[in-house]
Automatic annotation (TrEMBL):
Record field: catalytic activity: Cleavage of hydrophobic, N-terminal signal or leader sequences from secreted and periplasmic proteins
Protein's recorded name: Signal peptidase I
Domain of life, source organism: Bacteria
Ranges where the Peptidase S26 domain occurs: 18-166
Pfam families: Peptidase_S26
EC number(s) reported in the record: 3.4.21.89
Annotated organism of origin: Laedolimicola intestinihominis
Family annotation (InterPro entries): LexA/Signal_pep-like_sf, Pept_S26A_signal_pept_1, Pept_S26A_signal_pept_1_CS, Pept_S26A_signal_pept_1_Lys-AS, Pept_S26A_signal_pept_1_Ser-AS, Peptidase_S26
Molecular function per GO: signal peptidase activity
NCBIfam families for this protein: sigpep_I_bact
Length: 174
């Protein structure tokens, strides 16, 4: 029978290697989770104030079977710009503005989260604007300082990257 010189360390080597493999598997699972299921973004600017503050960390769910009016979403335009906005118009809806209010299908919307008056901004859209299939109308909650569908027009469903599920208020506004 051969005597192993470092025999008493064999168990520790195997234990370390097993822990390393478990760590790698966990790391791979986390990377896949954030690539396929969950997205992370930092809110830039005040376009969603008071709902979201500049600098807040938010997580969004990438796998969303259906979007609804009022959902806060991550939007990535073909230009590469990424925004956080609220869906106000769904495919088939008629979007209009009158007397500082948003109208969907002719009905004034109750928007307790909106900051400032809702008014059309300068772009190619004529109002009322009827959304075609697969198009959504998004607005920032801070209507005065928001770059949204009033500027860049209705967005495609493929430009919606996910629905916000949680946000962490890192910076407090006084």
């Amino acid at each position: 029978m051969k005597k192993r010189i470092l025999g008493r360390y064999d168990g520790k080597k195997r234990s370390w290697f097993r822990q390393f493999k478990e760590f790698l598997a966990l790391l791979l699972l986390i990377v896949l989770l954030f690539q396929l299921v969950v997205g992370v973004f930092f809110v830039k600017g005040d376009s969603m104030y008071p709902t979201l503050d500049d600098g807040e960390l938010a997580l969004y769910l990438r796998i969303v079977p259906e979007y609804h009016r009022g959902d806060i979403v991550s939007v990535r335009l073909p230009s590469g710009e990424q925004y956080v906005k609220r869906i106000v118009g769904l495919p088939g809806d008629e979007v209009d503005f009158k007397d500082g209010r948003l109208l969907i299908n002719g009905e004034p919307q109750d928007e307790p989260y909106a900051n400032g008056e809702s008014a059309p901004e300068g772009n190619n859209l004529t109002y009322p604007c009827t959304l075609t299939a697969d198009r959504y109308f998004v607005l920032g909650d801070n209507r005065i300082q928001s770059m949204d569908s009033r500027i860049f027009g209705p967005i495609l469903k493929s430009e919606l990257k996910g629905k916000m599920v949680v946000h962490l208020r890192i910076i407090r506004r006084d």
